[in-house]
Design brief:
104 residues; mainly beta; globular
Amino acid sequence: MPIANGFISSTAPWSFVATFDVEGFGYVATGNYVPSSMQFNNAPATLTYKSANQLTSRRSVQGTVGINTIILDAANGPVIAATLTVPVDPAERIVGSIKWSIKG
């Protein structure tokens, strides 16, 4: 499965934005989740996916934020994983949604 490198940051205690270079295109993932967690900034992240066709539309997501990692598993297969530069404590199991777009 292909892997793309990028970054993920929280935009509020309940939302995030992630950017990745996928097959020469800049992809942006934005999302919301519950429960809220401590915020995190610019953590290096990897995106594992089968096909860029999976990186479309809005999808449900579940995973974990904290203590030292973020794992976001989209319902249609892609997984975002990151190592936090500053611990987020306590860790939270989250559910929410993710929306994919390509940078203009």
